[in-house]
Design brief:
- The chain has a single domain (4-224), classed as 3-Layer(aba) Sandwich (Rossmann fold).
- 39% of the residues lie in helices and 18% in strands.
- The protein is built from 8 helices and 9 strands.
- It has helices at residues 7-13, 36-54, 66-77, 127-137, 154-165, 178-187, 194-200, 213-224, and strands at residues 22-27, 57-60, 84-89, 93-94, 106-107, 114-118, 145-150, 169-174, 205-209.
- Helix 5 (154-165) links the parallel strand 7 (145-150) and strand 8.
- The longest helix has 19 residues, at 36-54.
Length: 230
């Protein structure tokens, strides 16, 4: 993918008609410090069922690592669910049966339903494209969208920045580590560094505790506001 004005047509060719509600997943690609079994209920019990209830598409970084792997495995274990679109730098993507040419690359997560491969040379170059794909799928805001942040580092903070600039609510899962904890603290008015406080200034950040899955579900429902039932 070379031009963002091609996105709507490319997504339509993939069978992803717009506008539709969208959930963006941002967070740890390396898996973070928490055991997968601690985080998996977020995907099994909240993200997938709430996305399905709202008829939403999920958009993330698409590689077989960290929260993207957990989401894909949860989708497979559930026997399917909402569409999951992975947005990946083409030069770093390892395709089935073909490892990535770049030593810094990563395999695509096999249980994602769709992929958008974009230009770039390093991890993080996909961040503006993830936001652009979410914007295209939502019909430039004609349908609601939200971002859920689980852990994460500098790239996840960039994802949050792109979401905030797009006017998208960001729900940080406090207790999942690193960037999510910093964003959650800022959302609660507990301070943070200048970059995080600048993100909080727009009033779009929300915080939910990791073990409050009902609260996370409610926050997603409020952000997507499609009248879905629990």
């Amino acid at each position: 993918m070379h031009a963002r004005d091609e996105l709507a047509a490319a997504l339509a060719q993939l069978g992803l008609a717009a506008p539709r509600p969208v959930l963006v997943l941002a967070g740890d690609a390396a898996g973070g410090t928490l055991a997968p079994e601690t985080l998996r209920p977020v995907f099994d019990e909240v993200l997938l069922p709430r996305a399905a209830a709202h008829g939403a598409c999920i958009v993330d970084g698409g590689t077989d690592a960290g929260v993207m792997r957990m989401l894909g495995r949860a989708h497979a274990d559930a026997g399917g669910g909402p569409p999951i679109v992975g947005v990946v730098v083409d030069a770093l993507a390892g395709h089935p049966g073909s490892p990535p040419a770049d030593p810094a690359g990563a395999a695509l997560e096999e249980h994602h339903t769709h992929f958008v491969l974009v230009d770039g040379t390093r991890w993080g170059d996909e961040a503006p494209w993830i936001a652009a794909v979410a914007d295209a799928l939502s019909g430039a805001g004609a349908a609601p969208s939200a971002t859920v942040l689980v852990g994460g580092g500098d790239i996840a903070r960039d994802d949050v920045g792109h979401s905030v600039r797009a006017g998208r609510v960001v729900i940080a899962v406090a207790g999942s580590g690193r960037t999510a904890d910093a964003i959650a603290a800022a959302a609660r008015g507990e301070g943070g560094d200048e970059r995080v406080l600048a993100l909080a200034a727009g009033g779009l950040l929300r915080a939910v505790e990791l073990d409050d899955r009902a609260g996370l579900a409610a926050a997603i429902d409020r952000a997507l506001d499609a009248g879905a039932t629990s």
